[in-house]
């Protein structure tokens, strides 16, 4: 695993991959002629620690997990920012790998950056809260699977050869923790999302414009058949911005005149893909013919409108109240800035990324607008 520093970002500390020399340890003054028992005990302690009293290199590989190694691991796992560091530390020595447990760690608060030829098998992830990023080489996985998407800390893959079954890969451990019987459909995919408890994959297609979903028990079907056990579409509507939020999946549905609505699932009430339904949560024709986006920010689900002359002096951001099924204008987004497009929307703190302007919406086609003060 290769670690890098993002421009204008907080530098990350590298993980030692080779044995390094330790600083000489200061010892307490001893008598000129210590008794034999004391001399033997001192030599035994130095030998077990892998270092002599002259300050020779510490034998890091001999460290056991029940000592400082375990405490370091606990500190790293206490903050998801260092989940990648913990995973890298387990790979340094065989003794560390066997002594440190392999917990269910994910890159939940990270986003995957663009990857392309010639290094299509290298995936770079950015930690939004700290501006740290890490590049992971998945060449051994890329030989058998093709990349579909990244969501909620896992990579969605599909077999290159028939029957093109789906896998969820943890990029830190490089293990397929979840395997699906269902295969990836032969449609022009727009975006993919993953929800957990139960684990389901949702796929939004360009044409036909619909959302389909499967779980681990969804049976395999021919790639040209209707995909999954559930599908959702609205005639003459495009489905965009599929967004997991509080255990449900939300999306924007807009008709040919860009009059929109928010649709959502009922996953929390169901445990099988075959019984999941989607329905309209909120319609908002009063907002006119606009383009709409969904953004998760500071624990809220927000509806963001495209800037236009028709909206001069009107709110551009609304909080989605999923309980009362209503929209509430937002007057201030603080130090946050939004990046929005139909595939993925993110909120970042401009205190971490000082080159961005607070209170701005950056649109996917290159324009930005200062919308809130």
Automatic annotation (TrEMBL):
Biased composition regions of type Low complexity, renumbered to the chain: 1-39
Transmembrane segments: none
Matching Pfam families: Beta-prop_KIB1-4 (PF03478)
Region (Disordered): 1-48
Superkingdom of the organism of origin: Eukaryota
Record-annotated KIB1-4 beta-propeller domain positions: 128-363
Protein name: KIB1-4 beta-propeller domain-containing protein
Source species of the chain: Lolium multiflorum
């Amino acid at each position: 695993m290769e670690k890098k520093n993002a421009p204008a970002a907080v530098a990350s500390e590298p993980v030692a991959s080779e044995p390094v020399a330790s600083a000489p340890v200061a010892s307490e003054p001893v008598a000129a002629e210590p008794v034999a028992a004391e001399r033997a005990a001192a030599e035994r302690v130095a030998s077990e620690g892998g270092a002599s009293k002259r300050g020779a290199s510490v034998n890091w590989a001999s460290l056991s997990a029940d000592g400082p190694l375990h405490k370091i691991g606990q500190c790293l796992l206490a903050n998801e920012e260092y989940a990648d560091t913990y995973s890298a530390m387990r790979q340094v020595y065989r003794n560390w790998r066997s002594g440190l447990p392999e917990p269910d760690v994910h890159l939940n608060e990270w986003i995957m950056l663009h990857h392309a030829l010639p290094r299509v098998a290298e995936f770079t992830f950015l930690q939004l809260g700290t501006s740290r990023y890490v590049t992971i080489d998945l060449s051994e996985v890329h030989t058998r699977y093709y990349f579909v998407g990244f969501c909620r800390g896992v990579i969605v893959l599909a077999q290159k050869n028939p029957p093109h079954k789906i896998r969820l890969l943890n990029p830190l451990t490089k293990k397929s923790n979840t395997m699906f019987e269902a295969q990836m459909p032969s449609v022009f995919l727009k975006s993919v999302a993953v929800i957990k408890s139960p684990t389901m994959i949702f796929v939004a297609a360009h044409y036909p414009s619909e959302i389909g979903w499967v779980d681990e028990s969804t049976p395999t079907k021919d790639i040209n058949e209707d995909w999954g056990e559930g599908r959702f579409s609205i005639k003459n509507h495009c489905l965009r911005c599929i967004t997991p939020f509080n255990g449900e999946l939300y999306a924007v549905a807009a008709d040919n005149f860009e009059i929109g609505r928010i649709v959502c699932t009922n996953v929390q009430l169901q445990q099988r893909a075959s019984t999941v339904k989607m329905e309209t949560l909120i319609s908002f024709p009063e907002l006119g013919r606009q383009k709409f986006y969904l953004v998760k920010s500071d624990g809220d689900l927000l509806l963001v409108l495209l800037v236009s002359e028709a909206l001069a002096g009107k709110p551009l951001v609304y909080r989605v109240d999923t309980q009362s099924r209503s929209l509430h204008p937002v007057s201030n987004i603080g130090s946050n800035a939004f990046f929005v497009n139909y595939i993925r929307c993110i909120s970042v703190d401009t205190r971490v990324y000082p080159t961005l302007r607070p209170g701005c919406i950056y649109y996917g086609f290159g324009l930005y607008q200062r919308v809130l003060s």
